[in-house]
Amino acid sequence: MFKIMFSNWDALLSGLGYTLLASVIALIASLIIGTAFALMEISLHKWVRVIGKAYVEFIRNIPLLVIAMAFYVIVPQFIMQMDGFTAGTIGLTIYTSAFIAETVRAGIQSVPNGQMEGARSNGLSYMQAMTHVVFPQAIKLVIPPLGNQFINLVKNSSVLAFVAGFDLMYQGKLIANATFNTFDTYLAVGVLYLVITMPMSYAMRYLEKRWHTA
Amino acid sequence: MSMIEFHDVEKYYGKFHALKNINLTIDRGEVVTIIGPSGSGKSTLLRTINGLELITSGQLIVNDYDLADRKTDMNKIRKNVGMVFQHFNLYANKTVLENITLGPTLVLKADKAQAEKEAMALLDMVGLADQAPKFPAALSGGQKQRVAIARSLAMKPRAILFDEPTSALDPEMIGDVLDVMQKIAKQGMTMVVVTHEMGFAKRVGDRIVFMADGQILEDATDVKGFFDHPKEPRAQEFISKILNH
């Protein structure tokens, strides 16, 4: 394993970089998009709720690979040129956003209704009540499940390998094909994924603990 | 001068007829207590006044705003009509002081330092100035409710609605909350109080409304007289039950 790792260090490092980059972009974007759809799912307006629910149900019931392929194959044919990295990252973002939407929605809805009623009776608008009272409480509740989503996201970024996204998995595939040493290569790839996900896991646990006592 | 006017108000939840032909006018500065068996529509009636529940038909005027009109901005009504809940509903993510200043700073655009000064004065009034930096979870029920009252007073409302403010409290906590409410009543605040505290109704109330099955069965300005000689059989039954147990 170490021999493979050191002789292909540059390729693996570049793969790790692309995996990290795709993960960070998808994490931030899916958090924003997911939260927006969560708010839509609990909107006071029926048609906004319908759109929110439709998006979440549609996206989360399609395999990630299919979504990524759609952006890699279909979008360039009809709409605009897109490289594998972009297509994969967009696919990953959209796929993850549906799960984040459900997580955040559940968090908001588990904040007791009295918090919203108290705030509205205090003269706050719906949005003010959401931003200052309900949402900050919901975020604490969703830290653990959100952590799961983020770790899944990093691992799911391996979908980039299938759309030529130059990520860690993609580099691993190339190295395995060139060296025929499948076992050691994927072992090395696995270890490098752990290098990203394990610190995330611990960071999430730390946040959970700290915010729980606050 | 009337603060709250119900004219032929009906309220349905699906097929359930929650409020039946409500006609009630409450003047500015009046303290009205609403009593009645559970499920009689007392809380529903109270919650229509600040638009937490919408009426199905009829007319409801609060502080000169027409609540049945879809164009009426509920936020404007709620700015002027405070509410105190059975379960306090303090903001769990804010300190006691922040609970009180959030409304004034966000809604009334008050200056933060000024809002904090006024909040401290209110906390002093309800006897909780030393609790300002704590979070609600660290307070007792009676303290929470007094903070909730201070929170609604901070908005300088024209009226305050109380939805069973002492029902979730331990008996020894009730007195402190009722004392604060009496203080506010003396200052001329319009108050509508759904309660089971008959002592408060007698001592502080200008008027008592008895509800059952979604209707107002009795509406008396002679509160003592009502307790001694309720006219309606349902009211007689209710009074005898709560006084003789």
TrEMBL record, chain A:
Record-annotated membrane-spanning stretches: 20-40, 61-79
Subcellular location: Cell membrane
Membrane topology listed for this record: Multi-pass membrane protein
SUPFAM superfamilies for the chain: MetI-like
Record-annotated ABC transmembrane type-1 domain positions: 16-204
Listed InterPro entries: AA_ABC_transptr_permease_3TM, ArtM/GltK/GlnP/TcyL/YhdX-like, MetI-like, MetI-like_sf
Coiled-coil stretches noted in the UniProt entry, renumbered to this chain: none
Superkingdom in the source lineage: Bacteria
Keywords: Cell membrane, Membrane, Transmembrane, Transmembrane helix, Transport
CDD domains for this protein: TM_PBP2 (cd06261)
NCBIfam families with a match to the protein in the record: HEQRo_perm_3TM
Family named by the database record: Belongs to the binding-protein-dependent transport system permease family.
Protein's name according to its UniProt entry: Amino acid ABC transporter permease
Organism the protein comes from: Lacticaseibacillus suilingensis
Automatic annotation (TrEMBL), chain B:
InterPro entries attached to this UniProt entry: AAA+_ATPase, ABC_ATPase_HisP-typ, ABC_transporter-like_ATP-bd, ABC_transporter-like_CS, MetN_ABC_transporter-like, P-loop_NTPase
Domain (ABC transporter): residue spans on this chain: 4-238
Origin: domain of life: Bacteria
Single GO molecular function: ATP binding
Keyword field: ATP-binding, Nucleotide-binding, Transport
Protein family membership: Belongs to the ABC transporter superfamily.
Name of protein: Amino acid ABC transporter ATP-binding protein
